[in-house]
Amino acid sequence: MLTLVLGGARSGKSALAERLTLSAAGDAPPLYVATAEAFDDEMRDRIARHRADRGTGWRTVEAPADPAAAIAAAAEAGAVLLDCLTIWAATLMHLERDPDTETARLVAAARDLGRPVVMVANEVGLGIVPDNALARRFRDVAGRMNQQVAAAADRVIFVAAGLPLVLKGPSFGAGEVAS
């Protein structure tokens, strides 16, 4: 099952995605596929806080440029969490790689894994229109990526103020913690 969890910054999407992944993993350890890179002290601190919040039961793979390969190699994981598609979109733009092709590779890897995969993304289309071409291009790339993953996903959840709204697929099942 592929689940996409969307929301704004600080909406609670990552915390929900972690709970869903832990619930889906069963007795096998979950895998956290990280797309962020620590280019400065603030990002290093942010990554450290995320790791501390997750606790010790997770295996983490840093895959900023190729999360599809990390997912394809995750056969031993009970479930996989990829956080976050939006940061990965920025990396793809920087590397001048085609986001549509790379997103198709990512979705295929998730489908082929045969284990639950949860992906997190920022919903970037609810704000004002950016005032410069690069920011508008980023918004467009991230929006298309979200649409591509959502179309392939079995379940899509939108999170606002820590509250989840299922947009597509099954509601929360027994054992899943929605909020």
From TrEMBL:
Name of this protein: Bifunctional adenosylcobalamin biosynthesis protein
Enzyme class: transferase
Catalytic activity: adenosylcob(III)inamide + ATP = adenosylcob(III)inamide phosphate + ADP + H(+); adenosylcob(III)inamide + GTP = adenosylcob(III)inamide phosphate + GDP + H(+); adenosylcob(III)inamide phosphate + GTP + H(+) = adenosylcob(III)inamide-GDP + diphosphate
One BP term from GO: cobalamin biosynthetic process
Stated family: Belongs to the CobU/CobP family.
E.C. code: 2.7.1.156, 2.7.7.62
Catalytic residue list: H50 (gmp-histidine intermediate)
GO molecular function: adenosylcobinamide kinase activity; ATP binding; cobinamide phosphate guanylyltransferase activity; GTP binding
InterPro entries: CobU/CobP, P-loop_NTPase
